[in-house]
Amino acid sequence: MARKEETMAKINIRGDIVLNEHKRFYDWLGWDCVCPRDVQSIIDAAAHDEPLDVYINSPGGIVAAGQEIYSALRGDPRVSIHITGQACSAASFIAMAGHCDITPVGLMMVHCASMGYVSGNHNDMERAAQCLTATDNAIAAAYAEKSGMSVRDALKLMERETWLAAIQCIGLGLVDGITPETAPTTQIAASFGGIRLTKEDMEKVDQAIKE
Predict the structure, then answer these.
(1) Rounded to the nearest 10 degrees, what angle do helices 122-147 and 63-73 cross at?
(2) Residues 6 or more apart whose Cβ sits within 8 Å of residue 84
(3) N or C: which end of the chain has fewer CB within 10 A?
(4) Whole-model pTM?
């Protein structure tokens, strides 16, 4: 028997994946985003037997925010994940948190983590490199757990910044099937964008709020 829409909790992973403290800037600017607090609040409000449907169409975002969302969803038997457009970068490993389907025109992109800016001496640079390597291994572990591939093979995909069409995602075991025709879909863009929020944006919003 099909599940009734009113009995499902809906979690949208749309736009940038951001830290809780940055959500207000996006809201003020009218930009799509999601933060861990958004996801956790929906999970907490859902009944213990209420299905949790997660819809992903995101270019990715902050690794730490993605990790928190992944951990909140992972292992919850109520969770069903649907890639309705693109699941790139941090959004791609969030998709590993449960049973996942993808629209036929969907895309997934996996790549290595990066830092915006690092300064200091060689010790600081080495620590930054160690942090990035550890982060890559942690993310690769999510792909490996979902697909059954080795962490080494997952890292190879990340090193190449690999883009995957729906059928490739299924072949690698990263998703479980194609989205049923009755499920809602979302238009996807033909380009890939990163985090839009800059320090200058934050300062402009803060100033506008004060005025």
Answers:
(1) 30
(2) 55, 56, 57, 103, 106, 179, 184, 185, 186, 188
(3) N
(4) 0.84
